[in-house]
Amino acid sequence: MAAEEAQTGLVFHPMDQFIVKPLFGGDAIYWYTPTNVTLWMGLTVLAVALLFVIGTRGRAVVPTRMQSVAEMGYGFVYKMIEDVTGKEGLKYFPYVMTLFCFIVFANFVGLLPKSFTTTSHIAVTAVLAVSVFAAVTLLGFAKKGVGFLGLFWVSSAPLALRPILALIEVISYFVRPVSHSIRLAGNMMAGHAVIKVFAAFGAIAAISPLSILAITAMYGLEILVCFIQAYVFTILTCVYLKDAVGDAHH
Amino acid sequence: MATQTQEAVAHGADAAGHVAANVGMPQLDISTFSNQIFWLVVTLVLIYMLLSRVALPRIGSVLAERRGMITSDIAAAEELKEKASEAEQAYQKALADARNEAARIIAEAKAEIAKDLQQATARADEELAVKAAEAEKRISAIRASALESVTLVARDTAEAVVAAFGGAVDAKAVETAVATRLKG
Asked: Which chain A residues are within 8 Å of B25, Cβ to Cβ?
């Protein structure tokens, strides 16, 4: 970083946007300190409330635009659980919906200029992924008892291969929360950092139009990524949930 | 270069507030984790409350209500359609009945008229025949009387002619002469 500053006068701070800062001055960050995390998560809650509570206030049979979007979100997640997990998964619809709403709104709120993207932090996505992992594991044992371990014993494979496959299955099972969380945080972080890098190039007059064009293009891509990553996170949650509550073997 | 790097690190640390040791990724600054996790849990609980207590039941009931309304509306529409087609059938039937009735009435009227006409014609023919016969009789009577008159006139004339010539009128001779003349 220092070398770059010294050589060209360009200032690259693509990662500064991810720094957690206290909102009201001071240095120390305790667990209860209101930080920019608090602010942007609060805005996420507000956005969810705006769409799903204020937007559906009318309870209209012929929906308004806001209510229509809220209904679409409801139907989207509901159908996803029904299709992927099956009817038994619908019991957990509020939890999955909470996950989806938080991720999709945190992603989109994080696209506002000068914002802080809470879902770009591995601490946040790891908590989400680990809670899904823990919930699925506990639920699996609670529902199926020891039979849940049948997940690792691939009965359709030849007997000789099964121990090896079981080992691979166990490893892949425990890697799930890692990939699950890093996928989301990585996507969010990378896109925002790239936009910041392009923005820094805007300081050079000759290439600033190109820079603006690149930012615009990246921004469009990021809008897509924001939704797709929320979708991917949710659908993987449904897939994992299927292992615990579904009856079909994979 | 080393001092410069250190300066930059110090600068970064100032800006970051808390990112002292790690200038790389703020995501890996473990000291902020407890803060983030705390606020994340608060956020998730809030969103869960909002959704499960207010939004999801509301949207669910609206969707169910709409589905019910659409189903009942479609059923009602189906019923009305059925009724409409029934009414149309009834109308068509009434129309056909009316046509048949009209045709029947027309046929009856025609037959009656034809019968009346025939009767009238027959009666007229009869009357005509009677009248013709009467007329014939009268004509023949007239003819007979005319012949008689001719005989009379001829006799009178003959008598007058004979008297004019100064002869003695023999009524019997004149009569026979006229009769032979008239025959011939």
From this structure: 15, 18, 189
Average pLDDT, rounded, for chain B: 85
Per-residue tokens: B85: 């087609």
A1 touches chain B (CB under 8 A): yes
Structural domain contains residue B6: no
Q: Is some CB atom of chain B closer than 8 A to the CB atom of A37? A: yes
Among A15, A74, A19, A62, smallest CA distance to A193 is for A15
The Cα–Cα gap between A53 and A48 comes to 8
* pLDDT tens figures, B32-66: 899 999 999 999 999 999 999 999 999 999 999 99
Q: Which domain holds residue B175?
A: 22-183
Per the structure, the count of domains in chain B is 1
Any CB–CB contact under 8 A between B57 and chain A?
no
Alpha helix ranges (H) inside chain A: 2-8, 36-49, 65-84, 93-109, 122-144, 162-201, 208-245
Residue with tokens 């206030």: A57
* Å between B40 CA and nearest CA of chain A: 7
Q: What residues contact residue B158 under an 8 Å CB cut-off, 6+ apart?
A: B174, B177, B178
Evaluate if residue B6 carries a pLDDT over 60. no
Quick one: average pLDDT of A156-167?
89
pLDDT digits (tens, 9 = 90+) for B97-118: 999 999 999 999 999 999 999 9
| B31–A contact, CB cutoff 8 A | yes
Yes or no, beta carbons of B16 and A16 under 8 Å apart: yes
- Give the mean model confidence (pLDDT) for residues A165-175: 93
Interface confidence: ipTM more than 0.90:
no
Q: Residue B40: inside a domain, yes or no?
A: yes
| Residues A43-60 pLDDT 10s | 999 999 999 999 999 888
Contact B40, A41 (CB under 8 A): yes
